[in-house]
Design a protein that fits this description.
With 300 residues, the protein is an alpha+beta fold. It folds into 3 domains: 109 residues, Alpha-Beta Complex (Nucleoside Triphosphate Pyrophosphohydrolase); 29 residues; 132 residues, Alpha-Beta Complex (Nucleoside Triphosphate Pyrophosphohydrolase). It is 22% helix and 29% strand. It has 6 helices and 15 strands. A hairpin with a 4-residue loop joins strand 13 and strand 14. The longest helix has 19 residues. The relative contact order is 0.14. The model has no long low-confidence stretch (mean pLDDT 94).
């Protein structure tokens, strides 16, 4: 993928070794190995080295043994785990940071580790009990499963598919919308969750019709990106509109506007328009249509 097409969080170099998740002997040996490293996660926050903006990874001996532990994978350097904690203990010259802030700046390995770790931790924090009988569940498969000791049911990490689309007018303008809950001047591409029994293309068409009052005549898949806020997978598309006669739904979307490339560039430059951050697939879709990066002036 080119830089414009490659979403910031869709990166990673570590082998997730799913076949090892239920191998107790291997997991114990990996945890005891001196080359293994641990990423501590506290409610969506991780520790970051100030000097080089890399993740703080600690030895397994420095991680609390009684806390939930998740296998993230292996590479030539060793195994990687995440451990869920209530509060991060920071080494000197380190700070806490969230994925929205650092996701676009991390290297490929660190991006994959932190997205995986935060996604798992978010799910475990909110799925502590069985959805069938209400009994407390237990972590299994090295953090990739919860089981119910009462009824034997298995529960897997949840991922909610959501479509996000760059809607383009017949004369090649881009549609952006403003949600009522956003600060003034903040605009982004349209998006929405996929409903039961609905294809991705159907979801694109429905969301555009609901939020902007127009139909689309062509839907093209572009790329996807994990978005663990708390558990989404964003599926990016372009969609060609059948007309430019738009109207906001007045509920979630307060305003929708068409932008030419010149108008978008000038509004971003003047500060009249605030776009999604580089970490988001929305920004990648906008820049793909625009034809290049929009620079730091376009920050969210």
């Amino acid at each position: 993928m080119s830089g414009l097409l490659s979403p910031a969080l869709s990166r990673g170099t570590v082998d997730r070794v799913a076949e090892r998740r239920s191998d107790s002997a291997w997991l114990d040996a990996a945890w005891a190995a001196p080359t293994s490293r641990v990423l501590l996660v506290a409610d969506g926050q991780v520790a970051l080295h100030e000097a080089d903006a890399s993740l703080v990874l600690v030895d397994t001996s420095q991680a609390p043994a009684e806390r939930p532990r998740y296998l993230l994978g292996v590479d030539d350097a060793g195994a990687y785990f995440a451990v869920s904690v209530d509060e991060l203990s920071l080494p000197e010259s380190a700070r806490t940071a969230g994925l929205r802030e650092i996701g676009a700046a991390l290297d490929d390995r660190d991006t994959g580790l932190v997205v995986h770790a935060i996604g798992l931790d978010n799910w475990h924090r909110t799925h502590t009990h069985c959805a069938r009988c209400g009994a407390p569940t237990e972590i299994g498969a090295a953090g990739h499963l919860r089981t119910c000791p009462r009824d034997g049911s298995q529960h897997f990490p949840r991922t909610d598919p959501a479509v996000i689309m760059a809607v383009i007018s017949p004369d090649d303008r881009l549609l952006l919308g403003h949600q009522q809950v956003w600060p003034a001047r903040r605009y982004s591409t349209l998006a929405g969750f996929v409903e039961p029994g609905e294809s991705l293309e159907m979801a694109v068409a429905r969301e555009v019709r609901e939020e902007a009052g127009i139909d689309v005549v062509a839907v093209t898949y572009i790329a996807s990106q994990p978005w663990p806020f708390p558990s989404s997978l964003m599926l990016g598309f372009t969609a060609r509109a059948s007309s430019d006669n738009i109207r906001p739904d007045g509920d979630e979307i307060e305003d929708v506007r068409w932008f030419s490339r010149d108008a978008l560039r000038e509004d971003v430059r003047s500060g009249e328009l605030r776009l999604p951050p580089p970490v988001s697939i929305a920004r990648r879709l906008i820049e793909l249509w625009y034809g290049g990066p929009l620079g730091e002036a376009a920050r969210w």
